[in-house]
Write a structure and sequence with these properties.
The protein has twelve helices and eight strands. It is of the alpha/beta class. The chain has a single domain (about 5-305), classed as TIM Barrel (Alpha-Beta Barrel), CATH 3.20.20. Strands 6-5-4-3-2-1-7-8 form an eight-stranded mixed β-sheet. It is globular, with a radius of gyration of 19 Å. The two termini are about 35 Å apart.
């Protein structure tokens, strides 16, 4: 896999600072049952990196220290971490809002039959990736049979009460473009998703999040192999909107890797671009002492992916 960091390091992206931290996003490991083209984590079935319980316990100490209210669990497939259930149950006992960035096919994998019911029982918000309502497009990006497995999993979540508005069980879907272009308008695409998934499969969900593909890791390497890397960066930069900066996820979120090292966002984590602090490579244990509000955020050229067009964050478009 070709490294894109040397092409992103030198940047004229505007300087930005942290606001109050409301979310701790924990990458529980790079193990996943899929290997998707757009994946900025380079996750897959052969990855061995997994967060241990000691690191999770330290993360919860940081949550208490900084008064953080939301735990955002990601991966890989976070459910594949053996400590996933312990972490969710402990976080809920602390009164935290827990979000699971779920690849829905994991709910159909042998050995993970427990996952859907477990998420519902613990009131976990599910953010499920479904990059298109077309089987051909999904399978092209994620692998043969992924669309059908995703549909079955979403139907199962609906049966448990997810996505029905008044149940309290939130189900949000995530769209990623198939190629080297910006996502379409989130609001209009959400209407298409709801209509087509409802008519064809009886699926209901709360919101659609459109997320711009980042020119890093597997997707960045794919861009280089196709000779599209520099053109894609130009698209992102030309579509920059300064008004999107205030809503950037990095201003209110801390990203934690499986070893406990901390970053301003998940994308910086994948590039090894550490959170700027007095420590060269800050760890969760350092956050027990450091204040976060007002600190400068580490930026590079990929940051234009979050400010381009309607904007992009873990919560979808910034100006939908």
């Amino acid at each position: 896999m070709r490294d894109t960091w040397p092409l992103l390091r030198d940047s004229d992206f505007p300087s930005i600072q942290r606001g109050a931290t409301t979310t701790l996003q924990m990458n529980l490991g790079y193990l996943c049952n899929l290997s998707c083209i757009h994946c900025h984590v380079n996750a897959g079935p052969l990855r061995k990196e997994l967060m241990d319980r000691a690191t999770m316990e330290l993360a919860l100490d940081v949550v208490r220290r900084h008064g953080i209210g939301t735990l955002d669990l990601t991966g890989g497939s976070p459910e594949m971490n053996p400590e996933f259930r312990w972490l969710v149950e402990t976080a809920r006992e602390l009164g935290l809002h827990v979000m699971d960035r779920c690849n829905p096919t994991i709910l159909e994998e042998p050995g993970y039959e427990w996952a859907a019911e477990f998420l519902a029982q613990n009131g976990v918000e599910v953010i499920a990736s479904l990059p298109c309502y077309s089987a051909a497009n999904v399978d092209q990006q994620r692998g043969d049979g992924v669309f059908d497995a995703s549909i079955k999993a979403l139907q199962r979540l609906n049966q448990l009460g997810y996505g029905k508005g008044d149940s309290g069980l939130k189900l949000n879907l995530v769209y990623n473009p198939v190629g080297a272009h910006l996502p379409p308008a989130q609001a209009s695409l959400e209407l298409d998703y709801k209509r087509l998934l409802g008519e064809r499969f009886g699926i209901m969900f709360d919101q659609l999040y459109t997320i711009t593909n980042m020119p890093i890791k597997r997707f960045g390497s794919w861009l280089l192999s196709k000779g599209q890397f520099h053109d894609y960066l130009t698209v992102l930069k030309n579509a920059h909107r300064a008004e999107n900066i205030d809503g950037l996820m990095c201003r209110n979120l801390v990203s934690v890797d499986y070893q406990g090292y901390v970053y301003d966002c998940d994308f910086n984590q994948m590039l090894g671009l550490a959170m700027p602090t007095e420590r060269a490579r800050p760890h969760l244990r350092d956050l027990l002492e450091l204040e976060l509000t007002g600190r400068t955020i580490a930026v590079a050229q990929h940051c234009y992916g979050c400010t381009a067009g309607q904007g992009s964050s873990c919560g979808g478009a910034l100006n939908a």
